Amino acid sequence: MVDLISNLPDEILGKILSLVPTKVAASTSVLSKRWRNLLGLIDSLCFDESEEATSGSHRFFDFVDKTFALLSESPIIKKLSLSHIPTSGRDDDNSRVSRWIWTALERGLSELHLHATPRCHGVYLSRELFTSNTLVKLTLSGEYALEVNRVFLPALKSISLLSTWLDGPNYGRLLDGCPVLEDLLITETHRWALPCCASFVESASLRRLVITVKLSDTEDTTVFLKAPSLVFLDYSGYVTSVYDFVDLDMLVEAKLNLMLWDSSVYDEHHDDDYYDDGRPEGISADITRLVAGISNITTLHLSPESLELFHLCCESIPVFNNLLTLSIESDKAHGWQVMPLLLESCPNLHTLVIKGLVHRVTNRCGDACPCSPEEHKNKKRRTVKDEEESCCLSTCHVKVLEISEYGGSFQELKQMRHFLGKLECLETVKVCVDADENNNNREVLQANLLSLPRLSSKCNIMFI
């Protein structure tokens, strides 16, 4: 095998060497002369200091220094990935990192990924590194941060900020200096500085935005988003009291995974007789402006908790005139209280996707499901005839219903009977049976579903 590899052309061997993890190579004291001569053909570098490395050891830094020295004749470096453990009080290490990056930038670097394991030391990058005309993709992770007065990256299209030490002013300068930015990924798991990056996004060119905030102390944070070119939004985080989403007219698809600080609120309120009486006592979060800001979308994905927070924390549901696909997830901990109003607010809905039919039974699921608690059935003011005439499903124009993780329980079968008996425009029902079910059970579940009456004569049930 070694001989076969050795006989390969130099260009191919150079590509192979580019794929070899440098953390493995770092444990080797010398490279063979043949491979050493091939370093000039490398256009992708990945340096990864092992987590087990001794803190304060400079072996890794020395190795990277020697590697870059061997690359002095390399005409181009397309990609540089650097993951290391910062050492306390070593400004020289920061200078060496900056020198490596600058060397790569001089050779037309287009992709740069930087990670420093959090140790409360910080790795600060200088201004000169942020005036590149070739950089297209940038990742800053861990203790990496900026200390710059000006940023100009005219070719940069993608930024990933993964729990960095980046503060507000430098973060703002970074966004301002990227005129063609299209993709922005922000993950916040540590509050290094206020405000966090996820709380403020303004970009005229941004098309795709993914935000994940795992901070439980952001209740009073204002979340501002202004992105007139944005077409995709994936937002995951604890709900706050103020959202300011503006200029999102181009937004096509939104995925929301909203969470409430105190999950005990669900236990306190899931059986209360409120709906139009405002926000329940003890809940200050308000997602009304968030929901209004995304009302032009055509596709909406909601996590189980997001669906319930549309009920608990939203004063009014806007009309989603353009919404064609609504995708929700369900679990036993969260209810469907908002489903009747949400379906009525989507007059042109074509496809309804539901992952898991089992949900928390409440008195506010209304006519979207048949599972109202027994003690509330006698409290309804409307007659059965009135309910049938005004059922939110009877006025819903959904043509495609997709159900995944179907387990065939009594509650799930009852829910499917309700859907099939109320959705008069249904043409296609796709059901994916839970993977845990054995083949015999699958046949029974399928037979039970196929035997259910269907209001729509065009309805065809498929199992996928």
From TrEMBL:
PROSITE patterns for the chain: FBOX (PS50181)
InterPro entries per UniProt: F-box-like_dom_sf, F-box_AtFBL13-like, F-box_dom, FBD, FBL60-like, LRR_FXL15/At3g58940/PEG3-like
UniProt xrefs under CDD domains: F-box_AtFBL13-like
SUPFAM superfamilies hit by this protein: F-box domain (SSF81383), RNI-like (SSF52047)
Segments forming domain F-box: 2-39
Identification of the protein by name: (rape) hypothetical protein
